[in-house]
């Protein structure tokens, strides 16, 4: 739609939907259509562009609306339209075009109709105007048509468009005009009409117009470069309007341009840019507009246009009112000063090889700076024809990437060789600056290039040779699987080098069944599979499912391509005639529908016929491996039983191992190893039975012969049959190092425990202490259990407590001796103890829990036994033993003991750890016990070992619905034999955990599993740790074992990120690569931080050599404890989150990560190192910095809140803002900025989170399990905030968070904390240096050494404290200081928080309101002070001036007036511009400060009074 003057609106359909709205569209040509088109109309010569076509349309009664045409100020309008019918004799009575109009939203009225001319029937007549709107066309107003002729006396003689117009239609102060074109019928062949150039011409109702207009400057032809600014100035004059200063009332101005030098007042093609008032020139108003920067290359003509009071336009040229004197503007392309192909001039490669071409460009002011020049695009092009890349066809252009700086040139490179087929190619370069014209580069010789020309600097030459015949072998054929066939072929490469299969074909009896794509290769030592046929059931290859590397897969139904008869399979080279390999298979050789494949036995020998050197491979074959064993038929070995018991009576015992699915061709071996946890002595308590005796030489290797299923055993002889009463002893055997067989592995029963029991009367395995409980005061208990398997007779054992000196020297203790500190602290078990009976014994006056109290709710019915009333029992450094005597032999005859005389302290509770110790022991080992709090014991559940009166030793197993042997807790070995969802069935705290084969364990967000010792996941078992779920392990020596395909998946969900954002990762898995865990991420943008490379001698906070970030390969391993920066996926929609899964054995125990000092030894505050939480659970930040004394106490977390930006300073074109580092130390955390904000760190570092630390000395940082707890929240993996608070809520301390912000989202947060042990110097644990670099705003507190702190810990709060504050700014304008959060005494009514602006001498109460001030860019380290005033001691005479006490305004002479609402002495008034420039100052209030000569804008007025300062803004 274009506007001509103020009077015409033209809809010419050259632009889609410009000025019109169709109800719908269909079709694209000039038939079967309702749409805009430029299709050629036969027999028509007047149509050259787009028009609207309707013919035989599929739409029902479509329409076109011309909406909201502005007719303000118009007296009337006329309507015209160009029309031509499709056929002169094909309009039916139902075919019609009804054009109606509406003004100001009123009812529609008839404007112009097209109907058929009546001819006696209802079809096939001439289309004509219906000027009286009676439904019939009129012979005097026929429409032209693409065909001509006469009907009913009406002749159609023209085939060109004809213009039809209405008479003027009066308007009465209307403002909007709507016109509708309604098409009815026209749904059969040849029924149609074509429209163009709809014109609405208005007659203006007003006569106002400017008396004079011109183009003032420039008035001669001008030339610019594309992208340059170009401003045109024009003047206009109207008496009584423009003489006064400033823009005349009602005057509008435009500068217009056109590519055609025609009349701007009536001709089309002009684009009008609104102009703004520039200056008063005499009686003229001068306006200007910038028109050049958006213009593409070309020649333009410009003129001016003015309008007064929304009436008529006047137009100006170089000589005044326009008179064919538009001014010419030439926009030249922005082309490079130099470009080339730098090297190589020529090259020869083999098909599939990569080939890089390097080219350079130079443009002053763009490429001569360090790094990639802005707005440069580069390509390397190639063609199979040696022609001119500048103009000729056939060139393919590959985008090139920036490579390096070469002097003042930028060098780019692109790879163009790897996908080229054999032949000769010619290559050149192409560059473009600022989207302008291309320049092309050529080459004379290596490193000698220039602009491309056909003689000297022409194209480089690349020759691509065909690869040699592939040295590969057809090794396996599946021609008839079970059921409907899935058919496939395997090809292996044993040549010693990579082989090319580019465009090779596989043929079966001269019919091609598969063609490899160009560039396909097969690596040495590997095999590939090609799907030839499939039954389409979704599973490929019954018996051993897999997905072929090439060809068909299980989802495509296309079978019987390998016939079940004698056939020949041939692998042909790309020429289609040279055979690389061929095999003839025969159904008589096997694999005919029995689920087996045919596999070559020796690929180095003749493989041409499956009757020789071939055999069957069972269980679906061995696809993808050059093996005669199916991966789906594996060998497994395990112990027949996991436990056995034998008394020390001189007998032999066989510990046997069984085999499942032995290989028919390969023997299987496995080692039986002795576990170091065994308590029996090899060679003393047992031996090899040879009579020497001789210790058994572990490990013992057991061999299962090929094809044998017979058990293999280790024989043990119990050699020590003494007469000493002693505890049971164990021989623990483990299976290890299985080999041979068919991918042999160790099954579930991998451990066997032989228990050697005592046979000397009531032995040491009869009874044991199972719980030691010391609560508050006298609340002390001992729990014992009968573990003998028989009734223990009354009066057999004593419970004896050895106190004080007896505990220190128990061998000399006699609890019955006079003066013994242990007197009365013993008790005879005087009644029979039933099998597995558990008894609880307590201090005579101990508090009895409800479940041990008869008559109380929950009483369990079990008796409680008391020590004697005089017994003091234990007090934290005593021994509790069970003995067969109670005299001087008590210690010698002990059968169990807890304690070693070491002071434990009071209120300790220990429960026997059943996954470590299930029998009594005459020696104390703290590892045999699990500590519980007294609260856990007092609130324990029945079925758990902390429950006094219950103790279970055996494994408790989950079957999917219930537990087999009591509830899990930290003293129990727990097995999961059914699927377990922690979120449904409850968190788990266990001693050790085993996940059985095929079982899935799920740990949802907010849930945990806590393991004291070991974790084992058996074959096909899975633990899924969902995002924000936790797997916590306690013992640093705990072992994580994955058997077979057992797997642990740690799932993490990223923060919501934008395109090109980085996330900081650390792997919770012991061994994984970047490609495995982050395969969909931008692994070409993956980095580790090399602290020792950092050097910042120019003090810009960036690495001088740009080598501190080292690139990581996808095959590199993620080292636990190390942080990595990885760019997220960059395709798709943004912002978004990504789910990442780390799979494998999780990290546990002590993990160290190296840290280094920077290369600049003179700077002690740039030793940044990148580490990360290595565990699948959160760790405590406080504990981490306390543990590692060789680092500063502040941690820095990347929050990727703000987008990468060209406006951020840094070494690259696009840089990130260090505003995005949240900080944390033991004072608390500060968040990051932008409009979305980021939550402050909470003190817990989430699983998988990488973060920065600052090293004090080089060495390592240590992570261990003491940093972990199931109480730590695992949800602080950095993400956008919108959190309820910016601080942790677990501790209320004297702290204040301050924000520095601007209206556009710039943000910096500061935390001040007052702590008893903090100082005013730099404290490692309390003071965090603010990161500098690319911050828009940096807010900080200072100390005496000018350190800039983002977090500062200060000594205990006193009301006289003054905290120096400063800021750095890279932006201009208003910024605001506000309180984000406040705690402790600072949040009480007795303490105010004042901000003192030392520059403006303003003291502001931040508790009452935020403080806004105006800044320039720069560094302002001493601008503010934070002061705290105690209201309780504030003098009642002190006065603070109310902000509304004074009013400031400009009088008519643009002078500043101050009106007082109170009687206040004004000392001075000073005015500043928004850039901080002082405009004026006065001390005499009879004087005035004038802004008459100042530019329009906002100014700051600072009024200094006897009661303080007030700052006001005014607008000039």
TrEMBL record:
<dbReference type="Pfam" id="PF00932">
    <property type="entry name" value="LTD"/>
</dbReference>
<dbReference type="InterPro" id="IPR038081">
    <property type="entry name" value="CalX-like_sf"/>
</dbReference>
<dbReference type="GO" id="GO:0007154">
    <property type="term" value="P:cell communication"/>
</dbReference>
<dbReference type="InterPro" id="IPR003644">
    <property type="entry name" value="Calx_beta"/>
</dbReference>
<protein>
    <submittedName>
        <fullName>Putative lipoprotein</fullName>
    </submittedName>
</protein>
<keyword id="KW-0732">Signal</keyword>
<dbReference type="InterPro" id="IPR026444">
    <property type="entry name" value="Secre_tail"/>
</dbReference>
<keyword id="KW-0677">Repeat</keyword>
<keyword id="KW-0449">Lipoprotein</keyword>
<dbReference type="InterPro" id="IPR001322">
    <property type="entry name" value="Lamin_tail_dom"/>
</dbReference>
<dbReference type="GO" id="GO:0016020">
    <property type="term" value="C:membrane"/>
</dbReference>
<dbReference type="Pfam" id="PF03160">
    <property type="entry name" value="Calx-beta"/>
</dbReference>
<dbReference type="InterPro" id="IPR036415">
    <property type="entry name" value="Lamin_tail_dom_sf"/>
</dbReference>
<keyword id="KW-0106">Calcium</keyword>
<feature type="domain" description="LTD">
    <location>
        <begin position="460"/>
        <end position="587"/>
    </location>
</feature>
């Amino acid at each position: 739609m274009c506007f001509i003057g103020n009077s015409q609106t033209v809809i010419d359909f050259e632009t889609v939907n410009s000025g019109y709205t169709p109800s719908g569209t269909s079709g694209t040509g000039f038939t079967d259509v309702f749409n805009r088109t430029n299709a050629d109309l036969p027999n028509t010569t007047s149509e050259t562009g787009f028009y609207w076509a309707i013919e035989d349309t599929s739409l029902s009664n479509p329409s076109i609306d011309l909406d909201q045409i502005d007719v303000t100020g118009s007296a009337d309008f006329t309507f015209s339209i160009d029309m031509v019918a499709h056929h002169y004799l094909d309009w039916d009575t139902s075919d019609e075009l009804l054009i109606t109009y509406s003004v100001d939203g009123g009812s529609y009225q008839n404007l112009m109709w097209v109907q058929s001319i009546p001819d006696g029937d209802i079809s096939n007549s001439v289309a004509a105007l219906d000027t009286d709107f009676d439904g019939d066309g009129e012979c005097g107003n026929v429409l032209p048509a693409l065909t001509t002729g006469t009907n009913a006396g009406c002749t159609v003689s023209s085939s060109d468009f004809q213009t039809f117009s209405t008479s003027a239609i009066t308007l009465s102060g209307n403002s909007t005009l709507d016109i509708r074109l309604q098409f009815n019928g026209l749904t059969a062949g040849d029924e149609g009409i074509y429209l163009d150039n709809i014109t609405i011409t208005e007659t203006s109702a007003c006569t106002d117009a400017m008396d004079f207009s011109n183009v003032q400057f420039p008035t001669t032809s001008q030339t610019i470069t594309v992208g340059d600014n170009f401003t045109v100035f024009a003047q206009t004059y109207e008496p009584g309007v423009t003489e006064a200063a400033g823009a005349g009332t009602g005057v509008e101005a435009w500068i217009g341009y056109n590519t055609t030098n025609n009349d701007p007042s009536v001709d089309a093609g002009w684009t009008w840019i609104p102009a703004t008032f520039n200056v008063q020139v005499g009686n003229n108003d001068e306006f200007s507009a910038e028109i050049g920067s958006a213009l593409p290359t070309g020649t333009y003509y410009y003129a001016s246009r003015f309008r007064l009071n929304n009436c008529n336009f006047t137009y100006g040229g170089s000589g005044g009112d326009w008179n064919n004197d538009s001014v010419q503007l030439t926009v030249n392309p922005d082309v490079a000063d130099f470009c080339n192909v730098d090297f190589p001039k020529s090259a020869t490669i083999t098909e599939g090889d990569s080939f890089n071409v390097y080219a350079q460009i130079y443009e002053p002011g763009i490429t001569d700076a360090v790094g990639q020049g802005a707005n440069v695009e580069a390509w390397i092009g190639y063609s199979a024809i040696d022609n001119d890349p500048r103009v000729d066809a056939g060139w393919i252009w590959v985008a090139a990437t920036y490579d390096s700086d070469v002097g003042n040139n930028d060098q780019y490179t692109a790879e163009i060789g790897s996908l080229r087929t054999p032949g000769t190619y010619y290559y050149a370069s192409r560059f473009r600056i600022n989207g302008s014209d291309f320049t092309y580069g050529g080459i004379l010789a290596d490193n000698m290039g220039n602009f491309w020309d056909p003689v000297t600097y022409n194209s480089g030459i690349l020759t691509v040779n065909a690869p040699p015949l592939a040295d590969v072998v057809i090794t396996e054929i599946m021609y008839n699987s079970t059921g409907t066939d899935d058919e496939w072929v395997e090809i292996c490469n044993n040549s010693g080098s990579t082989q090319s299969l580019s465009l090779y074909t596989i043929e079966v009896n001269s019919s091609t069944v598969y063609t490899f794509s160009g560039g396909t290769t097969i690596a040495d030592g590997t095999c590939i599979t090609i799907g030839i046929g499939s039954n389409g059931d979704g599973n490929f290859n019954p018996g051993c499912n897999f997905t072929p590397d090439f060809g068909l897969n299980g989802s495509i139904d296309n079978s019987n391509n390998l016939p079940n008869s004698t056939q020949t399979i041939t692998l042909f080279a790309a020429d289609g005639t040279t055979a690389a390999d061929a095999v003839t298979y025969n159904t008589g050789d096997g694999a005919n529908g029995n689920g087996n494949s045919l596999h070559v036995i020796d690929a180095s020998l003749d493989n041409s016929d499956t009757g020789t050197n071939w055999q069957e491979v069972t269980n679906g074959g061995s696809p993808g491996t050059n093996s005669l064993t199916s991966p789906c038929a594996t060998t497994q070995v395990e112990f027949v039983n996991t436990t056995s018991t034998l008394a020390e009576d001189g007998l032999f015992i066989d510990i046997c191992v069984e085999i499942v699915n032995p290989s028919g061709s390969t023997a299987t071996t496995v080692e039986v190893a002795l576990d170091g946890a065994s308590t029996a002595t090899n060679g003393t308590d047992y031996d090899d039975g040879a009579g020497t005796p001789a210790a058994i030489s572990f490990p013992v290797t057991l061999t299962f012969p090929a094809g044998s299923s017979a058990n293999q055993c280790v024989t043990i002889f119990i050699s020590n049959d003494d007469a000493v009463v002693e505890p049971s002893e164990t021989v623990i055997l483990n299976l290890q190092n299985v080999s041979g067989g068919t991918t042999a592995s160790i099954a579930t029963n991998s451990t066997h425990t032989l228990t050697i029991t005592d046979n000397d009367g009531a032995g040491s395995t009869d009874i044991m202490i199972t719980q030691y409980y010391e609560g508050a005061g006298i609340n002390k208990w001992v729990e014992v259990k009968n573990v003998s398997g028989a009734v223990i007779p009354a009066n057999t054992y004593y419970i004896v407590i050895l106190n004080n000196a007896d505990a220190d020297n128990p061998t000399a203790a006699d609890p019955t001796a006079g003066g013994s500190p242990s007197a009365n602290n013993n008790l005879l078990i005087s009644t029979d103890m039933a099998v597995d009976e558990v008894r609880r014994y307590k201090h005579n006056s101990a508090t009895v829990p409800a479940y041990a109290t008869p008559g109380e709710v929950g009483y369990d019915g079990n008796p409680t036994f008391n020590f004697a009333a005089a017994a003091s029992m234990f007090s934290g450094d005593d021994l509790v033993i069970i003995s067969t005597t109670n005299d001087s032999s008590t210690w010698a005859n002990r059968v169990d003991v807890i304690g070693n005389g070491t002071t434990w302290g009071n209120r300790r509770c220990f429960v026997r750890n059943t996954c470590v110790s299930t029998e009594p022991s005459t020696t104390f080992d703290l590892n045999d016990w699990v500590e519980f709090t007294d609260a856990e014991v007092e609130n324990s559940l029945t079925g758990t070992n902390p429950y006094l009166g219950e103790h279970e030793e055996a494994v408790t197993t989950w079957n999917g619905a219930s537990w087999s042997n009591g509830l899990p807790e930290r003293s129990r070995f727990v097995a999961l034999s059914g699927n377990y969802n922690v979120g449904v069935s409850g968190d788990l705290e266990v001693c050790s955990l085993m996940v059985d084969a095929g079982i899935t364990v799920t740990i949802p967000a907010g849930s945990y599993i806590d393991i004291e010792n070991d974790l084992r996941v058996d074959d096909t078992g899975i633990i899924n740790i969902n995002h924000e779920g936790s797997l916590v392990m306690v013992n640093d020596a705990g072992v994580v074992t994955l058997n077979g395909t057992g797997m642990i998946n740690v799932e993490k969900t990223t923060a919501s990120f934008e395109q090109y954002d980085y996330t900081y990762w650390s792997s919770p898995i012991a061994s994984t690569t970047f490609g495995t865990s982050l395969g969909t991420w931008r692994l070409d943008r993956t980095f580790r931080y090399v602290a020792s490379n950092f050097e910042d001698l120019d003090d810009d906070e960036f690495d001088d050599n740009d080598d501190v970030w080292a690139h990581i390969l996808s095959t590199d391993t993620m080292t636990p404890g190390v942080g990595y920066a990885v760019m997220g996926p960059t395709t798709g929609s943004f912002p978004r989150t990504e789910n990442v899964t780390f799979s494998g054995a999780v990290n546990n125990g002590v993990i160290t990560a190296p840290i280094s000092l920077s290369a600049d030894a003179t700077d002690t505050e740039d030793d940044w190192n990148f580490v990360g939480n290595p565990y699948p659970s959160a760790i405590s930040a406080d504990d981490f910095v306390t543990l590692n004394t060789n680092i500063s106490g502040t941690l820095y977390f990347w929050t990727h809140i703000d987008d990468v930006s060209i406006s951020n300073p840094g070494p690259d074109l696009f840089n990130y803002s260090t505003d995005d580092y949240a900080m944390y130390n033991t004072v608390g955390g500060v968040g990051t900025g932008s409009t979305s904000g980021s939550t402050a760190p909470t003190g817990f570092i989430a699983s998988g989170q990488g973060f920065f630390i600052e090293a004090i000395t080089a060495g390592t940082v240590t992570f261990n399990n003491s940093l972990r707890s199931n109480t730590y929240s695992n949800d602080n993996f950095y993400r956008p905030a919108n959190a309820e608070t910016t601080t942790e809520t677990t501790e209320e301390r004297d702290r204040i968070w301050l924000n520095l912000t601007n209206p556009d989202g710039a943000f910096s947060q500061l935390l001040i904390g007052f702590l008893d042990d903090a100082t005013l110097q730099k404290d490692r644990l309390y003071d965090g240096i603010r990161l500098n670099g690319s911050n828009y705003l940096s807010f900080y507190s200072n100390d005496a050494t000018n350190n800039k702190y983002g977090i500062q810990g200060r000594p205990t709060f006193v009301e006289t404290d003054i905290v120096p504050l400063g800021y750095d700014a890279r932006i201009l304008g208003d910024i605001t200081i506000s309180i984000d959060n406040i705690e402790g005494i600072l949040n009480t009514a007795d303490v105010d928080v004042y901000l003192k602006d030392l520059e403006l001498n303003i003291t502001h109460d931040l508790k009452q309101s935020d403080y806004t001030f105006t800044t320039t860019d720069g560094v302002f380290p001493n601008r503010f002070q934070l002061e705290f005033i105690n209201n309780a001691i504030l003098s009642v005479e002190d006065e603070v001036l109310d902000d509304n006490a004074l009013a400031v305004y400009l009088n008519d002479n643009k002078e500043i007036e101050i009106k007082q609402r109170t009687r206040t002495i004004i000392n001075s008034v000073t005015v500043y511009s928004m850039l901080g420039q002082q405009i004026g100052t006065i001390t005499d209030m009879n004087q005035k400060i004038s802004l008459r000569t100042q530019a329009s804008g906002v100014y700051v007025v600072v009024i200094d009074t006897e009661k303080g300062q007030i700052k006001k803004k005014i607008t000039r």
